[in-house]
């Protein structure tokens, strides 16, 4: 970004919009004073909070990032929520009062303070990250897609918690969110980042004003740039014809799954080629754990996960948990909830080429496959970048591209559309529809109702796991 100019007044609530990769998260990091030094990039001009350089105003700003795991660092829930206050030297007796209040606001007040953070679901971890920020009582609250990993109920809880906070304190808020309607009732200003014209190499502020005025004047531009403008029609990528359910390609028999404690018991499911199945339900229901079990990466507590005879490796059984990693490759692919968990290369292009190379493609063939996937995912310009330097949405697309490059017959995906603007979301959905139409079986964990509707996916609903 270059020549970015704006002033946010005390008490304003700003929605920061822009296409994936426009610089929204970079701007939020700058406001939070965590961009790093001169050796990590270039900065011209000034960025101040209450007249103080943003790097010196960290105690006045609270930032909730896209990935809650990057903020949760302590073993116990209460300790983690208190960590920020401790760093600000808040008196001990006041810390625990703040912690309990903030946990209540985000819907975690019913959990014990000594609950292990490792046993929280992705959505619960995101709410814990928010609670830790709220406990510090920042004057400026920065929210970088804070509800992207939450179920619909969790979205409402976090939205209402933030509403309660800003109404009670009048503090300033900046929120980044692709789904505009989530926060529309809480914001009074919209700032749009983007390239002023197609030839511009860097982003700038291309719109700034009241929400209704910006949407009226820039609605088409925002839509073209990828924003989820309220009322926008969802494309239909449903199968043109019903798939013939001759035999399942993947099935479970009396499956009990979990990490020590069973989250599901006696599960019997069949998954078919040429079909998309959506595993849905509240955070904490065990959907991500089931996905890992289906992919052969987590051993069942009881029962079996079985793959069709024609897909099993030679001299191997039908249970993927017993296979070697190379035997999983090309048969069952897994897109993890946290993209970083599957990165293994220093460059984006190399990351996507790993699967094809392991499948026996020559180096030239593997890189041609990688280049094709990067183009489909709008990641070509990052081919020589380190995967960890990408934005949250770009990391998600890279994780999908690297798995699809190996052309698995069964693809298990955990929140595949997380962090996407409408344009990249649409490309992702088209790609999933294409591999479905080629006969692959797709199983996805998602809260994205639009994704499920667009693909005409079969829904399998889960209830919250009993404590």
Structure, explained:
- Residues 1-227, 244-464 form the ABC transporter domain.
- Pfam families: ABC_tran.
- With 467 residues, this protein is α/β, with parallel strands linked by helices.
- The protein has two domains: 13-225, 3-Layer(aba) Sandwich (Rossmann fold); 250-461, Rossmann fold (3-Layer(aba) Sandwich).
- 33% of the residues lie in helices and 18% in strands.
- α2 packs parallel to α4.
- The longest helix has 18 residues, at 152-169.
- The model has no long low-confidence stretch (mean pLDDT 88).
Question: Can you lay out the helices and strands and say which pair or pack?
Answer:
Layout: E1 13-17, H1 24-31, E2 48-49, E3 52-53, E4 61-64, H2 77-87, H3 92-105, H4 122-135, E5 140-144, H5 152-169, E6 172-176, E7 189-194, E8 204-209, H6 211-225, E9 250-259, E10 261-267, E11 270-271, E12 276-280, H7 287-294, E13 302-307, H8 325-328, E14 332-335, H9 348-358, H10 363-376, H11 392-404, E15 410-414, H12 422-437, E16 441-445, H13 449-455, E17 458-461
Parallel strand pairs: 1-6, 1-7, 4-5, 5-6, 12-16, 12-17, 14-15, 15-16
Antiparallel strand pairs: 2-3, 7-8, 9-10, 9-11, 9-13
Helix pairs in contact: 2-3, 2-4, 3-4, 9-10, 9-11, 10-11
